[in-house]
Amino acid sequence: MPFTNDDYLPTFEDLQVEELKLSSAPLRAGAHHFGKYCDNQCKEFMLCNEEEKDPRKCLNEGKNVTKCGLEFFNKVKDNCAVEFTKYWKCVDHSDHDMSFRHCRRLQSEFDKCIFDKLGQERPPLGYFSKIRVHNTTRPKPERKLNLPEKDPLYEIGPDLANPPPSIKTGSRII
């Protein structure tokens, strides 16, 4: 879809945000706790994305997810750096698909540290796939239905609405 000068595009200042400078292994290792810690921000972003159907309208919600992620991983760095580093390195070197199965002992050490220092339990299996209600303060967007105008060429006239039956077969097919 081409853009015109009338289209709103965010400025570089609107898009500027401090990024999470982590590779895939630490993100995968901390994903369960990160998801639970930033649950409201993530759900708010996904709700905005689903309702608005325009990523430009959800920039602030996306920034809040990134901000929460930075806050979480900084807390992990300050409180559980040793356990987390051992765990994500194990995940990184475990398999080609970064499987958790070889790192369960280190995972339990990391989970214990998160519980002791941050007071957060590891979410149970299936926690993120369950249906959970999210209450939001963001107003519901108004939807405009862009229906086409009635085209007079496609109107069914009285002569075509009930065609006469065919003489040979008695069918209504013309």
Automatic annotation (TrEMBL):
CHCH domain segment(s): 80-115
Function: Accessory subunit of the mitochondrial membrane respiratory chain NADH dehydrogenase (Complex I), that is believed not to be involved in catalysis. Complex I functions in the transfer of electrons from NADH to the respiratory chain. The immediate electron acceptor for the enzyme is believed to be ubiquinone.
GO biological process: mitochondrial electron transport, NADH to ubiquinone
Family: Belongs to the complex I NDUFA8 subunit family.
Cellular localization per UniProt: Mitochondrion inner membrane
A cellular-component GO term for this protein: respiratory chain complex I
Main location: mitochondrion
Protein name: NADH dehydrogenase [ubiquinone] 1 alpha subcomplex subunit 8
Span list, region Disordered: 154-174
UniProt xrefs under InterPro entries: CHCH, NDUFA8
Record carries keyword Repressor: no
Keywords: Disulfide bond, Electron transport, Membrane, Mitochondrion, Mitochondrion inner membrane, Repeat, Respiratory chain, Transport
